[in-house]
Amino acid sequence: MADPTAITAALTGLFPLVKEVFLMTQVLFEADKKLRSFWARVELQRAIFDAWEDGWLDARDKPDDKIKAYAFEKPLLARGILKEFVSLLKTLSDPDKLKKRYGLRPERIPKYATRNDDVPRDLRYYSDYLSSVDSRFNIKGLPAFNKSINDHLNLLKTVRYVIVGKDYELEDVVIRFTEFNRDLQLYTDSEANNEAAQRIYEVVLTGLHSKPDDPARLAEAALFEQKATIDPDAKRFYGDIAKFIGFSLSLRDVTVLNGRGLSPNMPSQKIFTRRDFSFDAPYKLGPHSTLARLLDYPTKYQTRLVLVEWVPVPKTVNVKTKLEGLKSEWYVLHADKPDGLLLPTAQGLVYDNTDSNFIGIVFQLPSHIRTEVPPKIAGRVDPRVVRSPKTTAAQRMPTSLRQLILQQPALDLGVRFKLAQKLLNSLHLMHTAGWMHKRIRADNILFFPSQSRDGEPDPTRLDFENPFLAGFHSARLEIETSSVLEVAAKPLEHIRPLQGLGKVLNQPRVVALDAYQHPEYRYNVNLPYRNQYDLYGVGAVLLELGLWETLEMLEKGDIGRRGYDPRVVPTKDDIRKDGETVERAGWKLDRIMGSTYGKVVRECLTLKPMPGDLLGLERTLVARLAHCQA
């Protein structure tokens, strides 16, 4: 068996060769417009390989250390990776195999040509040499190996492929790269594969703004691969890539339009009026959101249950201007998205000339929740159909994470670990695409009833596998009225008088939701919003999830005792104390959720500025959470 040191050296040396054969194949297909579909598919496979390769690189962009550790820890798997590298390079360096299997002929690039050129002979020599890099390969053969791969690489840089076969043979080239990537994943541990799956979204967006056509072609290639494969995991993987690129392109389009002072075109049928809905009291979720029945939709006499979030229009803002701005938000959120993004699909806007104070954003609900809602049909009453909104709401209403924490015993550790990973993964995907949520809080994370076997909502079980991320209104952070006595175990006189109001409310509002915001941003809300502020908000949610306490309950109601009226700006001292309370509470997680979970949350909640690769940090934190198990 090849020793780990030799495996490390061999893999490190072969990485550039693998990248070169990818490049040679791309150049071949890119040169002919008729073959651009092949180019996009090879480029997609190269992106998948690059995402996999990046996981092995250290701070110096060298793979030596990580590969060495892997080769010593799992020598059989590392040997399998080496075997795949050698197999690919032998195939794509052997002139006979290239012609017979793929209809390709290697030839010298004209500017490098010499009189005594014999490219097939030279390539055949290096292909034959690679046969010696097998289970018997050891450190004694490294000097000859290093010289051979350097000469091999220099040769490939002066060679190009020429098509001499048929299109179906070119299809086999793409299939060979696809199989290569698939087999690499089989020889790689789950942690590295998870990180690569996260990293692929960053790789496919390279050049999004400078060369927007490239990501679009990659999306088409991903859709092609999704249809071609029969593996359900591969179908989901390629489908998510295509959807993610589409979502990112919609963000780019909106950014370009807004930069020109424009908003995206929106079909008139997507702008509803209040008369198109039935807003029943049992469906109300909060002061700025409600479920509602969308009448005569999608066809006459049909009804769909939707979520409407009301966006207030300040008196200083023209309602038409606000409407144009919300068209951009609709345009982004109505695009297809990968399931891991957790963002809902926007169906349209609610705008009424009779009400200039609010504009609604209409969101689509899960299929088993939104459909089969009893319609209101004049003159047609079916006694078998229960039409009471109260009854329907009892079967379909969501429960927020905040409500769960306040009203229910703690969820199983396994459920909380998976939920934490989903939330952090969703944030990473948002930031990779260039989107910031800005209002990630426990009351904006909703769980709808699970789907029963007959396809109906089951109000006895919540669907924790598919959290619904809401909260896209721009209202000031506030919370429902509740007495601090409920959370602080302190008498009412300990509540400070409201600044500027000169009285103590009988039921003071506990505005703990402000504590989800990073203290730096709370000090000055005019600062440009940063990804780190979103990460802090998710950290606060993961803290609540781990301790099973809402923020105002932490430290025996410490934040709750600093409750203040939402009309009053908190002092800097209050903000500092809130941050310190959250930070102290983070150290209690280790004994409940384990040290790995605790460290992840504390990194999210750090108050120090995070320079450098924040996306890389988020990706690493998601991978760490994957190790948390009950």
TrEMBL record:
It comes from the Eukaryota. Coiled coil: none annotated. SUPFAM superfamilies: Protein kinase-like (PK-like). PANTHER family: HELO DOMAIN-CONTAINING PROTEIN-RELATED, PRION-INHIBITION AND PROPAGATION HELO DOMAIN-CONTAINING PROTEIN. This is Protein kinase domain-containing protein.
